[in-house]
Amino acid sequence: MIAAAQDTPPSRENAPLATGRPAQPAQAPMTTLRIDGGKTDKLRAGDILGALTGEAGLPAKAIGKIAIHATRSYVAIVHEQAPRALKQLEAGKIKGRRFRVRPL
Q1: In the chain, is it the N or the C terminus that has fewer CB atoms within a 10 Å radius of its CB?
Q2: Residues contacting 33, CB < 8 A, separation 6+
Q3: Residue pLDDT, tens place only, 7-35
């Protein structure tokens, strides 16, 4: 005969979560940097890419999508390389000019 302990329902304290979601959300693989310069400053994606791969020394694989808008530009950087890219862009120049750079 089966033991009576198996007939009792599990306690609520030890029950698994019903949502099935992980306790911590997964971290995004990329970080976005905002550059306060855009089409009105005659910036192109190649200028930003050149500043990141040339002066900053980042590998091209660490750089994602670059979006250029009228007054701002956005660039996706691999999360591990973002602090290095931010530091180099703040200290260096893009197309001979300094621009304010902020992480999002």
Answers
A1: N
A2: 74, 75, 77, 82, 85, 86, 89, 101, 102, 103, 104
A3: 666 666 666 656 666 677 788 889 999 99
